[in-house]
Design a protein that fits this description.
heterodimer; A: mainly alpha; MetI-like fold; two-stranded antiparallel sheet; 14 helices; 2 strands; about 70% helix; globular; B: alpha+beta; six-stranded mixed sheet; four-stranded mixed sheet; 26 strands; MetI-like (chain A); cell membrane (chain A); membrane (chain A); transport (chain A); transmembrane (chain A)
């Protein structure tokens, strides 16, 4: 199906939703570029609470500090987008990886040699012991950027050991069986019982307020559902005869994944992505509203809504951010619904 | 049966819902908003200004200041002290009211005063601030004939002593020291042998008793001679004080105007978030709220809907909003760097816009309305980014593409700083945002860190901060700033948080504390203000005007600039 016919098959609401989401993403991109260039909403307290539609300078009026509302709302798109989309992409990818691994490997598929485990543990221990003095040392030299080399070097070394890429002499032949599926099930059971907002509130207390640390915490919180969906779909696929055939023919797993697994999980995963992203828009704004996780100088719709509580007269500080938030959430929900109804057509197991 | 169960559960649920943290609406219950949890109600080491407000309803001092006219009135004392002076000392003789008694009906005596003074000076207690403040009290002499009479022997004489000699809580010895551990240790000995006594078992066990969390939290232990007793305290939610039914103050014959307990219950609703507090005020869930956010205050004043239910007051207060700079930090060691930061605060803009004109600009920590002590000749460090740049260059900073840099003791340092303030305080947030904007214009990167007040306290005590915004609660009665500014108090845990102090300023502070004559004291205070501006460890922004909303149901309202700004014990709630 080409793009033109896909577009024609969309309802009016879906078309509007897609256009809105693209506009929202474009605004976020522009805002991100502006932020990188050091543009921030400038406060002129003498011009606080100017009403909207009265001058071209401040088309949507100003807030309590005299910041132009239109510009502030534009920059707020970046915060909303950054908290909803990138962490969710990473969390979904991680969820697919863990879900597929659990389903394919089961409880007996992953064996690791005891010796390698010892080497890995020892390397990790060494890293934690040496980490602080090393960081201090490079800071003392005034070469702070070397820290990233230390981190990435350690990670690479551990990955090479884990993947048997290093010519290690292995005296111990005993293998340990890792019950991947059971372990993942246990983690998912614990993680999914915790309310996401509460979890984010608790986790964000561990790190200084920053939009990037909050993105990290969202990744940590939101991988569970994609993992669960993927695991269920792949377990179902494993029972199919063509999967057995691909195994017998020795088809590489990457090809099996792209041709058989991905089409089946794409629908539910994308549906979940859209609904989770719309939820995250709300959660990001809630956190900003509560003044938690997002620094006070990062523009956010939630922060505007929080400040609007002080003034009833300045209705525009409430109406415009609320409208943007509402439309963005609804557009993602509508796109999610579309994916949900299309999912059955895409699945190879239908 | 099932149906009955469901009905019962439903009713239980409704009852739980209705009783969820709402006060029992007694006719004369006054509901007051508190911006912070009191944290601790230990009368020696209480948590914050709000704790002090509550403690004043539970414990009493010998003297009190009248909110109406700022005059000094006897409270536990039957009258103002009689004063006798000689060359080196002054003697203040007090008589405690004959009616004054504790909750167990035993009388408040001079022994309780002696016990309270011992507490203020004992080793191993968190009383450094008080030891410095009441250092002038050298001894207490009890009358052999009348247990309610005593004389305080003070070093020299200063006018502040008229209030200071009676401005501490008189605490019940029977409750705080039931076994009389320090009853036989003379007050003078505690003062003289402070260090050696700290190793004795007597004081070790006594400090254990006083530092016990019971004194800070347990409603069974927090009992004084005041008109109210604490009956409930849910951290971060509510504190309830109930009127004592047979309080001694109702039987007093003299000076009854300072002895009131009209409201039967004081219900303190803890709402840290300003906006949430405003919503509670607008829905008439609270009777009294101070420090109302400016925009809401101005809007509500104009709105007939709220004018019908609330009176709005804005008395000038002694609450001073200031910026603290950590002078012990390498990058702020040079006073010119600190002065540069002072030039980045646009105080006049803050007052006119953020404070809506309801604030008073100041050059130092003396209120401009205290004309004799205020240094009116001193020019304020005005907002001037170019001057700030010049000062930074003079301090050795170099402007580079990566911001300001300077080599300090062989290491390249950048002028990046964190500014901490209490989260939820919209005024502080506005100050922080505007400062960040001004600093960025000249290439200084400021990171804003809103925090819980307890976290801020920890950071300040451990000197782990760059800049902070805080309110200093002052008063017009005494100018002994030694606990706050003397360099001997700048060690970890001391009251001098910013590390202010030079030998010259230490000497000034000592002279101010001991100076008797108004004219000389005034000139010393003016010199201190000049020195403080020069050092700029504390950048003074403005004295706030307290914005108070009080329900029109309440009669006998007196508002004042003295903390907390109103006397709730006089309030009479109409039906």
């Amino acid at each position: 199906m080409n793009l033109a016919s896909t577009w024609r098959s969309l309802s009016i609401i879906e078309k509007f939703s897609l256009i809105w989401f693209l506009l929202f993403s474009a605004s976020a991109l522009i805002a991100h570029v502006l932020t990188i260039l050091g543009k921030e909403p400038v406060a002129y307290p003498e011009q606080s609470f100017l009403a909207p539609f009265e001058s071209y300078d401040h088309l949507l009026g100003t807030d309590h500090l005299g910041r132009d509302l239109l510009f502030y709302l534009l920059l707020s798109c970046r915060s909303a987008w950054l908290l909803a989309i990138p962490p969710l992409v990473i969390a979904t990818a991680f969820g697919i990886l863990t879900g597929t691994s659990a389903a394919i490997l089961g409880n007996t598929g992953l064996k690791i040699s005891s010796f390698k485990l010892i080497i890995l543990s020892f390397s990790l221990l060494l890293f934690f012991i040496l980490h602080e003095p090393l960081v201090k040392l490079v800071d003392m030299w005034g070469k702070g950027y070397l820290k990233y080399f230390i981190y990435s070097g350690t990670f690479l070394l551990l990955a090479l050991i884990a993947m048997n890429k290093l010519p290690l002499y292995i005296p111990l032949k005993k293998n340990l069986i890792v019950p991947v599926d059971e372990a993942l099930q246990k983690i998912i059971n614990v993680w999914s019982t915790l309310p996401k907002l509460l979890l984010l509130l608790v986790l964000s207390a561990f790190t200084p307020f920053s939009i990037y640390s909050l993105m990290g915490w969202i990744c940590v919180t939101y991988w569970v559902l994609p993992a669960r969906i993927t695991r269920a779909s792949v377990l179902q696929l494993r029972e199919e005869t063509y999967y057995e055939t691909t195994k017998a023919l020795g088809t590489p797993f990457q090809k099996v994944f792209i041709q058989f697994i991905w089409p089946s999980i794409k629908g539910p995963i994308l549906t979940n992505f859209c609904f989770a992203a719309s939820g995250l828009l709300g959660i990001g704004s809630t956190l900003a509203y509560l003044g938690i996780g997002i620094p006070p100088d990062v523009p956010s719709w939630g922060k505007l809504l929080a400040n609007s509580r002080y003034s009833i007269d300045a209705w525009w500080t409430f109406v415009f951010p609320a409208l943007l938030l509402l439309l963005s959430i609804l557009s993602l929900q509508s796109i999610g619904n579309r994916f949900s109804s299309k999912a059955n057509y895409e699945s190879v197991t239908k | 049966m099932k149906n009955n169960c469901a009905k019962s559960l439903g009713l239980l649920f409704l009852w739980l819902l209705s009783s969820c943290s709402t006060p029992s609406k007694d006719d004369s219950t006054i509901i007051i908003r508190l911006a912070q949890d009191p944290v601790s109600l230990n009368p020696i080491s209480y948590g914050n200004g709000h704790s002090l407000q509550l403690l004043n309803y539970i414990y009493q001092s010998l003297l009190v200041t009248e909110l109406k006219d700022k005059s000094i009135k006897p409270l536990l004392a039957v009258d103002l002290p009689t004063i006798r002076r000689d060359d080196t000392s002054s003697y203040f003789t007090f008589t405690i009211r004959p009616e004054a008694n504790w909750d167990n009906n035993s009388p408040v005596t001079a022994k309780d005063v002696a016990f309270s003074l011992k507490l203020l000076h004992s080793p191993l207690l968190e009383n450094e601030r008080w030891r410095a403040q009441f250092d002038f009290i050298q001894d207490i002499q009890l009358s052999p004939t009348n247990p309610k009479v005593f004389t305080l022997v003070c070093k020299g004489y200063t006018p502040e002593m008229k209030l200071m000699t009676g401005d501490y809580f008189v605490l019940p010895a029977y409750l705080f020291d039931p076994n009389g551990i320090i009853s036989n240790v003379p007050f003078r000995l505690i003062r003289q042998r402070f260090d050696s006594l700290s190793t004795t078992t007597t004081f070790k066990s006594f400090s254990k008793l006083i530092n016990n969390s019971n004194l800070a939290r347990d409603t069974a232990f927090i009992k004084g001679s005041g008109p109210y007793r604490i009956t409930k305290w849910n951290s971060g939610q509510i504190v309830v004080l109930d009127k004592k039914k047979s309080w001694w103050g109702n039987k007093a014959e003299k000076g009854k105007n300072v002895l009131n307990n009209n409201p039967s219950r004081l219900f303190f609703q803890i709402i840290p978030d300003n906006a949430a507090a405003i919503l509670a005020l607008k829905t008439r869930q609270i009777d009294v709220m101070d420090n109302v956010p400016l925009v809401s205050f101005l809007e509500m004043q104009k709105d007939l809907k709220y004018k019908e239910f609330y009176n709005f007051h804005s008395p000038p207060s002694y609450d001073l909003v200031y910026i603290g700079v950590n002078g012990k930090k390498k990058i702020f060691e040079d006073k010119q760097t600190r002065q540069a930061l002072a030039h980045l605060f646009n105080t006049s803009q803050l007052i006119s816009s953020v404070q809506g004109g309801l604030a008073t600009s100041t050059v130092g920590l003396v209120h401009p309305q205290e004309e004799e002590f205020y240094n009116s000749e001193l020019k304020k460090l005005e907002f001037d980014p170019n001057k700030a740049k010049t000062l930074l260059r003079l301090a050795g900073w170099q402007e580079t593409t990566e911001g300001w840099q300077k080599t300090i003791r062989g290491k390249l340092e950048k002028l990046h700083m964190n500014l901490i303030y209490r989260g939820g305080n919209s005024d502080f947030e506005n100050i922080a945002l505007l400062f960040k904007q001004n600093a960025l214009k000249i290439g200084i990167v400021v990171t804003l860190q809103p925090m819980e007040s307890s976290q801020i306290g920890e950071k300040l005590q451990s000197k782990n901060f760059d800049l902070f915004i805080r309110t200093l609660m002052g008063n017009p009665y005494f100018y002994n700033f030694i606990p706050l500014l003397h360099s001997s108090n700048s060690k970890e845990g001391g009251g001098n948080i910013t590390g202010f102090g030079t030998p010259a300023t230490d000497l000034l502070l000592e002279q101010i504390a001991e100076e008797e004559h108004i004219i000389e004291k005034a000139s010393l205070l003016k010199e201190l203000q000049r020195k403080m501006q020069e050092e700029s460890n504390m950048i003074f922004l403005y004295f706030m005007k307290n914005r108070i909303a009080i329900s029109k149901q309440i009669d006998s309202v007196v508002v004042s600039g003295i903390k907390p700004g109103y006397d709730v014990t006089r309030f009479i709630k109409k039906k």
